[in-house]
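Why show two proteins at once? Because comparison is the fastest way to build intuition. When a single record is shown, students tend to memorize it. When two are placed side by side, the eye starts asking what differs. So, the first record is below.
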Amino acid sequence: MKKIFSKLVIFILISCLFISCATPLHSAYMKEGCQAFIGVHDKEIVATLSAPDEKQFDDAGGTILIYEKDDDYIHFYIDKNGICYDTETNNQEIIRKILNHNTTKAMIIGLPIGIVLGVVLGVVQFYL
């Protein structure tokens, strides 16, 4: 029984690490480029890319989410309902840069937490 529990805990921890690194929008971007964001709610964009570097408001009641990385930028034009209707960028690779940066941050934060949880669960399992 302990072996099954150990394998289950390891599977869950590894699954959590991979889930935190990719979202459906992330996968769609890898296939479609910036067009993957058209029709997507701004909350999903922020959940995928993190908070924008800047947020501006337009005259039509919408917003522009601005992300910058090095000398590259991408603007997401969001309508008043929160849906992205256009993007503008000087480099299609900026999304990849942002996603890679966020994945690295998630791993730096998530790995120690996973190790600590693994040790705690191992100790608990040992004494059961």
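Second record. Ask yourself what differs from the first in the token line.
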Amino acid sequence: MDRLAHYITWLGAIAIAGTLIVVSFSLGYYSVWAIVGCVIAAIVIAYPSGRLVSNMIKRWDPAWDTRKEAPQPDLKRGGSHERHPPK
């Protein structure tokens, strides 16, 4: 698992856990085990979604070589400085 997938997984897990904890509190479950269950469910849900989003980002990036799992060194991305050359 690459770094991008880790970041997306933990970002998604925090968001999902927060939502599940708010839902469990609004339903009247205030125990520690309800919170632990929400955190575990969030990690289980966020892991595949993090991998999916990471692969999708890499697939859409024209400078990423999926065979080597590394950026292509010779492909220019086309930043704003290339569209408007200095005069």
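One difference worth noting in the second protein: The first helix runs from residue 3 to 26.
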